[in-house]
Every structure is written in C-alpha cells, then in structure tokens.
Design brief:
alpha/beta; Diaminopimelate Epimerase, Chain A, domain 1; 2 domains; five-stranded parallel beta sheet; 14 strands; binds manganese (II) ion
C-alpha cells in the first residue's frame, strides 16, 4: 500500500491568481458520444458552485487534495493547487474507493480542509473520521454522502461526460494553465469546449480539425497525455518528485522540447517508460479477433499500461470491444473500451460472475478472479450481443413510418 502512495510538502506562497470571476458563463459542452453529439446541455458547475469552491480554496490555508491516480486526477489537482499553492496533494493508488484504510496514510498530516478530486467512490466511514470540511469534485456515478460538499454534473444530467479536470479548469480559470486542462480532458477522453482557444494558443500541439482520436494518438498534445500518464508510474518517491515539479512547470514546451532542466527530468522519466509502452502497443496492434471482443493479455511487463493501451487499441479497432487484461496476484485487471455502451452489459455480467467493475458508458475497468476470467469473457460477450440486438430493434422501430391518420 505504502509503495504506491505519495505525498509531498509544499512551499507556502501566493500565486498570481485571478479574483473569483462573478460572471462565470454556463458553458455549452460537447459530449463525447456519437449518439448524443447533438445534445448541447448545460453541464458544467453552476455559478454558485464555482463561487463556493473558489471561496473555500482561498479561505483554507492548508488544504489536503486527494486525487485519482490518472492524468485527469493529476491535472485536476494541479489546476486547483496552482491557484494558491497551499496545502499538499496525495494520490489514491491501488483502489478507486476512498475508504478508512487510507486514513493511516494521512493521519500524520495537518490540514484544515479536504478536497477529493476525480475519485469514483468515497465511504461515509472515511468522511465521518474528520471534523474538517470535505469537498468532493467528481464526474462518476452520483453518490450522496452526509457531511460532504458534493459537486458532480451527473446530479443534474447523468448522461453527460465531463472529466474532473474540465470542472477544475472552470474553477481555476487560468489561461496559463489551459494546456494542463486540455491534457486532463483528452486523457479522460473528452474534447472540451475550450478547444478553439487551445488551438489558437498551441497550434503546433493540436490541429483545428482534430477529433479525439487524432489529437490523442497522432498529435503532440497526445504525447503530453502519455507523459502525464507515465509520470504517475514508477516508485512512489519518483512519482512524488514528478508531481512536485509539475506544480511549478510553466509551459508544455519545457517538457516536450526539454527546454528547462525540470522539463528534461520529466521527459527522461517519460521516455524510459514510453519505450516499454511502444513495444506492448506493437504487440497489441498485431492482435486479431474475429469476434466482437478483442482481448489482449499481457503480463511480462513491469509497468501497467492497461488503461492507456485500451484507449489506443480501441482507436485502432473501432468496431470492437477492446479488453486489455493483466494478471496480477491471482486476479485479472482489465480495461474495457468500445464505441458502444459497455457499462450496462458489464453490470449484467457481474450479476452472473465473480468480480467487480464499472465506469463510464464507453470506458470501464474490471477486476476478476483468475479462475473466473474465461467465464467472464463468455458471459460478457453474450451480454454485449444481447444489448446490440436490442439496439437494432430500437433503430428498426424508429425507421418504421409513422401511421398516418385517415380523415
Ligand atoms: Mn476522471
């Protein structure tokens, strides 16, 4: 547990932060889901919520940020931390649930508020342990707890997909950190509404016609996505150092062009891991499947690439459900991606097989005991087909001409 955990002490200094903006526009957002790409909904935080969080961030002197172990969690933290540069950040490793076992990892710290970022589940027992205010900014399934200030666009519309980074960018509203906001959104597979502003500023990093696949897998902004994912990998002391450097880094070019010693340091960490990733990716790209499921298992690599590999192979196999699996400690840990809804069939599968999992409609994670893995694949395949058939019927019904009334 301790191995994957990190924390760091931070210098207390004031950052040239913008005053809370009273005229936060409720922004129309682009939803990544082909079926819903036309729906423009008010989905970000409300003006009142933004003000509430900004006020909290400026009033607590020693906040503790607990964030998810992925680029969306990391960028959420960086955006909020860089507003005032006070407090400290801790990554929630090894689990997607913030529970009481995490308390021993933070019990020696002093803090006057807790900000939970991009973490799918928090238990009431965890919350009840603290007297200080707890703020939770998230975009997973809605979970209401007592004594928590909860911010999740899903409370208003469960069908929207807004990464936590996007919400944190709305709060921080710092044009200098626009690149961090873009990296976090792309990494969590969303094209944010500030894309034009980003392309204008960083035309060499992303082209104006780029969709998610192109941006993430073919352009330089996509390299940054991989950089942020890989900076979180490795021994905890190194990860701690990487994050500390990221709290101070000024521009994406510091890293990409290795323009500063800090940027060079980060790029070196990234490139060592990326070499391994490119090898695994090549093997994954060679994998073929005639069924709807494309399963790629890899085990002999010391790095876990499941999530990022799943995204990239899904982009290469758009008609498939891509499952990247890795065996460790008697369990199979899998990342699942598809252009269709996989969350529902997965839920149904776990009603019949041991294991657990879930996530977003097009991107899920699952953990299955090794001995149940084959059963899992069979049943999941069956549930996907069932769902596919239902959808076909729906489409057919839509295509039927409406009956015209005889007059
Ligand atoms: Mn996220």
């Amino acid at each position: 547990m301790l191995l994957g955990f990190y924390d760091f002490y931070l210098r207390v200094a004031f950052f040239n932060n913008k005053k809370p903006n009273s005229s936060v526009a409720v922004t129309l957002t682009f939803i990544y889901n082909k079926n819903k790409s036309n729906s423009m909904v008010n989905t970000l935080l409300t003006e009142k919520e933004v003000t509430e969080i900004r006020t909290a961030l400026s009033s607590y002197k020693n906040p503790l940020f607990i964030f998810d172990d992925d680029p969306d969690g990391l960028c959420s933290f960086l955006l909020l931390y860089r507003m005032h540069r006070e407090g400290r950040g801790v990554i929630l490793k090894t689990s997607s649930t913030l529970d009481t076992d995490f308390i021993r990892l933070i019990k020696n710290y002093t803090f006057d508020a807790i900000f939970i970022l991009d973490i799918p589940k928090v238990t009431q027992a965890f919350v009840d342990n603290f007297k200080c205010p707890i703020y939770w900014i998230d975009h997973h399934e809605v979970l209401q707890l007592d004594k928590v200030k909860y911010y999740n666009p899903h409370t208003r519309d469960p069908s929207v997909y807004i990464p936590a980074t996007w919400l944190c960018h709305q709060i921080a509203d710092n044009e200098k950190d626009l690149w961090l906001a873009m990296v976090g959104c792309l990494a969590d597979w969303a094209m944010p509404d500030f894309r034009e502003e980003f392309v204008e500023k960083y035309s060499d990093l992303m082209s104006s016609d780029a969709d998610l696949d192109k941006a993430v897998f073919q352009e330089d902004v996509g390299t940054l996505v991989r950089v942020f994912a890989f900076l979180l990998k490795g021994p905890s002391s190194k990860v701690r150092k990487n994050v500390k450097i990221l709290t101070r880094i000024k521009s994406p070019y510091d890293i990409l062009k290795q323009e500063t010693p800090s940027g060079k340091f980060l790029y070196k960490h990234f490139s060592t891991i990326d070499e391994n990733y490119q090898k695994v990716l090549k093997a994954g790209k060679d994998e073929r499947s005639r069924s709807k499921l494309l399963v790629f298992e890899y085990g002999d690599n010391k790095w876990s690439f499941t999530a990022i590999l799943a995204n990239e192979l899904a982009s290469n196999n758009r008609d498939k459900v891509v499952i990247i699996a890795r065996k460790s400690e008697g369990k199979v840990k899998a990342s699942i991606r598809a252009r269709t809804n996989i969350a529902d069939p997965l839920k149904k599968t776990f009603e019949q097989v041991n294991g657990s999992g879930g996530g977003h409609p097009n991107a899920c994670g699952a953990v299955v005991p090794e001995e149940d893995w084959e059963d899992f694949l069979k049943i999941f395949d069956k549930e996907i087909k069932k769902k596919g058939r239902k959808e076909k019927v729906k489409i057919k019904n839509k295509l039927k001409k409406p009956k015209t009334k005889k007059c």
